[in-house]
Design a protein that fits this description.
single chain, alpha+beta, 8 strands, disordered N terminus
Length: 222
Amino acid sequence: MSRVRMTTAAVLIGATALSLGSASMATAQGRQQGTLQSMLGARVQFLEQQMGTARQVDRDQRHYQVGGCDFTVSVAGDEIVGYAVPMTRACARHAYAALEAYGLPRNLNLSMGEFARVRANVEFKADCLILCGNASNPWVYLESDGLRGQPAVRAGAVRVDRAAIDAGLRIRDAIMATHGEDYVVDTRFNCSREFDALAVRELDRVKITEIAVGQTTVANCG
């Protein structure tokens, strides 16, 4: 083969490799398009075309990991009806979209108190305030209904740092002082609005761990 033909072949091979590399990059970038907020009401297949397949499926919840962001999507049949996303840099694009949709400050360090001051009629929930065991870390939540057909939005804080732990203990003690230990163990406070104002005060400076929209798994009331 002549030197000219060899050079031409090398150029063609290099161009093909560059084209394939560009296509791979385009595919990866394509999977980053859209936000979880924009996926509400869409089909699971559409989401997975954008973000890849779920790494775990549990009944009506699907768990994903995309670009270092671990998030959960709630489904009804094949329709996306909600999601929960951590307030982290890796998940910033999705978290910011959720915050903006509900008129909340674009701030990954948003506190529960700031959430409550923007949203009206927030409700306090918790999956456990006493005898929680070691299987998983307990969470506390503030929930707010959406407006004009919007799904509800929920701010969640995992009780692992001192501020969240102490706030949870103060809320627990106040509820126990009024209704006794069984009431707290059975999480019956989740069906009452009696302690919403107290919880908002106690959680004022607690940093939000996760923002959730729509039909996500919420603690029951005993």
